[in-house]
């Protein structure tokens, strides 16, 4: 099949440091190439891919040192290039939320749109009611809940290349790990409380966005004085395996409807179990007692830390290989692509029975 992949331009594909969507698009693109498909990636010139690259910007927006730049302009230019070349592809796979909807109404039936973020936002229902002809893909079943009426074509879990991280059945460290964004919804403060209550060291590898600096300085930084807590900062892919693989467990104490939680399967790829809050997609990723524990309180999390010896780290890796490899992800998407190639033409751009609200 001739497949176009259209990710955001905020990070490189894959990102050099933190970043989820562009990372998954990179893994998916390469896996599709390995399966024998003709794949074109529309991205920035610093992308690394085995597909044909169409560079629509010189570098990822976050890495661009120029303080005067426009994300919207960059994405519109990319979409216009995709629009110009749309007839070259059997399927157009978008990862840019709804930004492309007004531009591709006449060929919506040949598109797939994976939604990577939270969907419980005020203005989203109006958009997905106005453009019901676009087939959508969720990354967990729970992610769909706020927009159950939308045109869902399927759910495809994220996946990682099986050889990206090696399993660590006997970790060298004796610490808990927190990896992600330093933000209120990720709850690094809760991770610190769990570590202190369990008497176990915690290493925090986290990105501090501009929007989260106040939270970091006011809430988290005062908690870093404990000798049990070490703040490492943002790390790249090369450091992840050592960081996660040598941890006794990954703490995932989220306080929001996480659509997937890529870091959970990154830990599992290393054989590291996950202690995660019963929130968002967690029950769809963590098999309680097999590759980690699902908890509802800090007290339960502390008990889970004490039960880590009951988890077989080889089984954690086995669950990853069975459910969350990039090859499985790509195969599931190919099934959706083939279904799109067989469906009837797209619906009219504006449904006759459209009602606002």
UniProtKB/TrEMBL annotation:
Q: Which Gene3D superfamilies match?
A: Glycogen Phosphorylase B (3.40.50.2000)
Entry superkingdom: Bacteria
The coiled-coil regions, if any, are none
Pfam families given for it? Glyco_transf_4, Glycos_transf_1
Concerning InterPro entries, the annotation shows: Glyco_trans_1, Glyco_trans_4-like_N
SUPFAM superfamilies for the chain = UDP-Glycosyltransferase/glycogen phosphorylase
Which positions fall inside the Glycosyl transferase family domain? 172-306
In this chain the Glycosyltransferase subfamily 4-like N-terminal domain maps to 18-129
Protein name, please?
Answer: Glycosyltransferase family 4 protein
Q: Which organism is it from?
A: Fulvimonas yonginensis
């Amino acid at each position: 099949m001739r497949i176009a992949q259209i990710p955001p331009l905020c990070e490189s594909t894959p990102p050099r440091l933190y970043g989820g969507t562009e990372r998954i698009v990179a893994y998916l693109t390469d896996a599709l190439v390995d399966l024998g498909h003709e794949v074109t990636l529309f991205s920035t010139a610093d992308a690394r891919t085995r597909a044909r690259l169409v560079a629509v910007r010189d570098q990822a927006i976050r890495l661009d040192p120029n303080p005067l730049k426009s994300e919207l302009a960059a994405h519109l230019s990319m979409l216009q290039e995709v629009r110009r070349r749309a007839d070259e592809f059997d399927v157009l796979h978008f990862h840019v939320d709804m930004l492309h909807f007004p531009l591709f109404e006449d060929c919506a039936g040949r598109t797939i749109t994976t939604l990577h973020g939270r969907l419980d936002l005020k203005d989203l229902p109006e958009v997905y009611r106005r453009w019901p002809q676009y087939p959508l893909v969720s990354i967990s079943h729970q992610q769909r809940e706020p927009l159950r009426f939308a045109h869902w074509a399927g759910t495809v879990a994220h996946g990682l290349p099986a050889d990206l991280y090696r399993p660590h059945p006997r970790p060298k460290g004796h610490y808990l790990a927190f990896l992600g964004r330093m933000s209120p919804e990720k709850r690094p403060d809760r991770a610190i409380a769990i570590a202190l209550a369990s008497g176990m060291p915690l290493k925090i590898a986290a990105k501090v966005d501009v929007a989260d600096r106040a939270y970091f300085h006011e809430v988290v930084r005062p908690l870093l004085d404990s000798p049990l807590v070490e703040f490492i900062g943002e790390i790249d892919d090369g450091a992840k395996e050592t960081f996660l693989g040598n941890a006794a467990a990954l703490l995932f104490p989220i306080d929001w409807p996480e659509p997937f939680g890529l870091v959970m399967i990154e830990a599992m790829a290393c054989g590291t179990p996950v202690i995660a809050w019963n929130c968002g997609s967690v029950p769809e990723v963590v098999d309680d007692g097999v590759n980690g524990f699902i908890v509802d309180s800090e007290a339960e999390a502390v008990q889970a830390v004490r039960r880590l010896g009951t988890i077989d780290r080889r089984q954690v890796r086995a669950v990853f290989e069975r459910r969350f490899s990039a090859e499985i992800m790509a195969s599931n998407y190919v099934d959706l692509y083939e279904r799109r190639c067989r469906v009837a033409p797209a619906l009219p751009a504006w449904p006759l029975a459209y009602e606002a609200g």
